[in-house]
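LOG
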Amino acid sequence: MRATGRVRRGGGPTHRAAPATTRVRTAEVHLEEVGPHSRLRSLLTTLGGSYGSTPLRFVARACDDGDDAADDVATGATFPGMRVADLDEVQDPDGVWLEIALARLDELDVELCAAGWRRCITDGRHWWSRTYAIW
């Protein structure tokens, strides 16, 4: 499996319960569009030659640090997605982008676990919103 991004290590053992004095950090996976976020550019891309596709990626972001790219703990590889698709809908009629998206999400999961993050039982509000903890 190729390296798909960067992972910021949290530190501390994860196979035992966290000591009472250790701060537990949490992160949640977000889905984001890669590149500039111009409405005009999005419209032109949708109407132009790429048939409405856009590069997407999953990003694990620390929950307590705000919503800034500097707070990313891991960044996954990009994959093509349809700008006009309902991303919350797990049923993809063609099955193409969803299959790639799930593979990229699993790759990010492997990277996070290798860096010491542990997947939580509960997830966020989207199917990709996996949550992780480290201490």
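LOG (cont.) second protein
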Amino acid sequence: MLFPTVSFALFFMLVLGLNWALIRRPALWAWFLLASSWFFYGWWDWRFLGLLAASTIVNHWGGVWLYRTRGARARHAWITGLIVFNLGLLGFFKYYGFFVQNAYLLASRLHIPCSLPLLDVILPIGLSFFTFHALSYVIDIYRGEMTPAKRMVGFGAYLAYFPHLVAGPIVRAGDILPQIERPPTRLEPIDIGRAACLILVGIFKKMVIANSLSARMADPVFAGGAAHSAPDTILGVYAYAVQIYCDFSAYSDIAIGLALLMGLRFPINFDAPYFSLSLQEFWRRWHISLSSWLRDYLYVPLGGSRCAPWKIYRNLILTFLLGGLWHGAAWTFVLWGALHGVYLALERILQPFVRTAAAFFGVRSGTGAGRRWPTWIAHGLARLWLFQVVCLAWIFFRAQTWDDATRLLGALTDWKGAVTLWTGINLSVLAIGFLSQFLDGQRIARVWDGLARLPPVVIGLIAAAVLTVILAFGPEGVAPFIYFQF
């Protein structure tokens, strides 16, 4: 059940009405959130509801027993068991086939026997996301940063809540559980203006921009490999960079907007990442819920930045290696993560030189000792460099295999081939997608505040008109969101 579809619209209309009809009865309302979210998840494949139920039961009672347990050794044993359980589920369903294939490949090269069973394991949708939700919940209890959910139904509703279930954002239990256990009342105003803006902007980004970039440029280039010239290949890579931003930020926008309409608030997940001046800033703005999760539950426990420089570089590379592997069971994802880890390590090493250069080129001196570049030029060059570095890594993220990636890199050397993709409409779609970052965060707060002052009927008419325009300009059909596969 995809967000921008008629089936989801009918589902959400029913859920929204019942949500506010039951809001005065918190216990029944929590059960309703759980049931509607399980129905949403079961729409794809009801067989995996058992997996979601097992995760709910084990992590809820594990959190309760962990909270009640006294003694450092016993608590350490509990948290270790819960981490092994969650990572075991994720490892089996997501990485078993990858592990077995590589084990057989290694065995053949070493000429040793390998008898691991070959199983056709189906990856349950959203497994990576609800596993990270569960891990953050039990780890926060272990650290003493929160108490367990009062009832299992509340934790189950948090874990399975349908707006964030299959593709994030990864909302911390400490942010959402209190809202579920103390639901809003009908007297509290609903931020309809912001919700409407987020949902409409998300649908526009997905259906008009992301789908168009995919169909017109990104997919042909990545499917064609070396068949395209260097200019077309570069444009296809740029198109994918903007496509994945528009696609994933669209899902996050819609999820946040849907939750707002139901009275729950999520933190933002994107904040104009390609406007960043450094890669460190990029990861504070891109998929914020995942990057902050990796920071708090992996990078900081490894030692973070409170250790020797070489250990900081090790921590960065290891964190992003695992972050790349989280995205998928393929060496291309591992390399994508490794590139970002190495980038960040090099950025730290070169930081003193960059500051010196920035001080010389980007800051005007009052002594008259030489001309200085205006700051906007220095910032523009920094953003341009950052975009190139990130796009280079996207090649490995998008490529299906290592051979596909190397063919695409080889195409970057062909400057004599035909140029077919650099058309006015393609460049316009790419530019609109890139500039849509101005809609992130609080940048259009005045628009949604203005909408909020209008009567609900007027807001509905405006939304219907905007949706009509979106459907007229967007490609036919609705492609799945990119992050559904992770």
